[in-house]
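User: Here's a structure from my thesis project, written as structure tokens. My advisor, Dr. K., wants to see whether a designed sequence matches the one we expressed. Can you design one independently, without my sequence as a hint?
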């Protein structure tokens, strides 16, 4: 990924609106703005580089928070604009996310450690932490086929282990995952209220 050379967030926002000149529904506007700002800041961190876990986290966040977005054809356009205006390659993000997702489903408890070490070795000193990395770990663990979704303890153990291998503080990862899950619930509830209000209006 080529780091953005833009000096200010205003430049990134200007480029964003040029690429995505559409009205963003209010419920999704905050997400778009937060991701735009976060990617802008990350693009200027010398110790940051895109990797499989980060890409997976970014796609997970985006897909969950754009659930129900209309018109549907704007979903990919919005993602591309958020990435492009900050020097991130959306095709690379999508490809890396799919690569990790496919690989994770083939891993066993015995092969997980060595694969995560391969990822760590590729990252090297470009290991700047952001909440997006935590969500990448969350998504990764959720796709491990040898873990039962109801086995909370095992999920925590694997999340802790992966965090350690990648050099991330587990307490911080755990906090970011917890906040993410809480925000997802709030988003789901908000969408349900909007749907109910819409149905109510249509029935009048």
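Assistant: Designed independently from the structure alone:
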């Amino acid at each position: 990924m080529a780091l953005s050379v833009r000096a200010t967030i205003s430049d990134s926002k200007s480029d964003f609106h040029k690429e995505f000149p559409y009205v963003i529904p209010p419920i999704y506007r905050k997400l778009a703005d937060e991701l735009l700002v976060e990617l802008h800041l990350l693009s200027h961190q010398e110790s940051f580089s895109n990797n499989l876990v980060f890409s997976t986290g970014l796609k997970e966040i985006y897909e969950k928070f754009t659930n129900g977005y209309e018109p549907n054809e704007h979903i990919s356009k919005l993602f591309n604009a958020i990435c492009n205006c900050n020097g991130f390659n959306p095709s690379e993000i999508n490809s890396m996310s799919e690569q990790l997702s496919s690989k994770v489903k083939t891993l066993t408890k015995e092969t997980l450690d060595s694969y995560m070490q391969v990822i760590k070795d590729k990252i090297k000193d470009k290991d700047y932490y952001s909440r997006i990395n935590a969500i990448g770990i969350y998504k990764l663990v959720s796709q491990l086929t040898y873990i039962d979704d109801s086995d909370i303890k095992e999920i925590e153990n694997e999340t802790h282990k992966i965090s350690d291998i990648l050099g991330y503080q587990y307490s911080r990862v755990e906090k970011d995952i917890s906040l993410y899950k809480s925000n997802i619930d709030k988003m789901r509830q908000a969408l349900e209220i909007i749907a109910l209000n819409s149905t109510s209006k249509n029935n009048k």
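When you compare it with your expressed construct, this may help: Residues 9-202 form one domain.
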